[in-house]
Amino acid sequence: MTIPATYAAIITAAGRGTRAGDGPPKQWRALAGQTALERSIAAFAGFPRIVVTLAPEDMARGVAELSGPVVLVAGGATRSDSVRAALESLEGSGVTHVLIHDGARPLVPPRVIDGVVAALEAGSPAAAPALPVTDALWRAEDGRVTGTASREGLFRAQTPQGFALDAILAAHRAHPEGAADDVELAIRAGLPVTATPGDEDNLKLTWPEDFARAERILGDAMDIRLGNGFDVHAFTAGDHVWLCGVKIPHDKALLGHSDADVGMHALTDAIYGALAQGDIGRHFPPSDPQWKGAESHIFLRHAAMLARQMGYEISNADVTLICERPKIGPHAGAMALRLSEIIGVEPDRVSVKATTSERLGFTGREEGIAAIATATLVKGSS
Fold it and tell me: CB under 8 Å to 205, separation ≥6 — which residues?
């Protein structure tokens, strides 16, 4: 989603996080090679202005380590004090809306941010993500359950919480005593707040075990890989060619150790390449006589199976055949359908097309056919 030019993000990172156990404040602890704060800032990379509140003693580190369009503001004794300082710094800057986010929520998904922005753009003066409470609720005292409470209508609050800048700044000024979060202040000020979808991965780092959970989530993050394949086969005597699994009548054949399906070979190598698993020759050596004359769907099926064994799904495949003849257009649909069957994806995820080399080179002289292919593999979810 494109973020309007008049929007800013405020990331609060001035707290000490004593409940997180020994070590530096939680926002400065590492998660898979980056600090939690760096990850929180990166989540708002599309915002034209990002304000980060830091404890005065962390300012030097912030200047040294935080990059990008980040403005540092000294935080106060409480979260509300820090947010108000950031809001005051934006007054008169042309900013109309702010999203206020906890620096200790480093895994906020883009869709959560987009949901808040969409609600503000639709006219709501305040919006915040939340998750419905699904667990039973108890009251307890001295380690014993003393009663129950209804979970009906209860939600777990998350950030970022978005507001019209003038409205939330006025709420902070009117209630200097502060609140648990900015939505509470907005409600005190009479602002209607729209609840937008939250996300379970948008956890707040609070306890030591939260860091292990965050590491697991990062380990499951989406992995997107691209692979390219290129293959060439010369013409020889014959009366047909195999291209992308389709038999096409022709006054020549393609020469090769297998059935010489140049399109299928290029796509197979594209998948192997995306997996960093070499090429067809590594898995099916031409020196091995068992592969003499083999049908190329064997190779392509193996590549697709290997991708799934490694945890990847084939998102799309694109094959371009380079030749003067035979004409590919009349057969392109059948080729795409055949490839989709072999690799196990929907037909609309496979493209087969052709081009000529304008009578230049070996393809232009009709000495053979070349093919290039690209495959996209995806692991995990966003």
Answer: 17, 20, 26, 27, 29, 36, 104, 105, 106, 211, 214
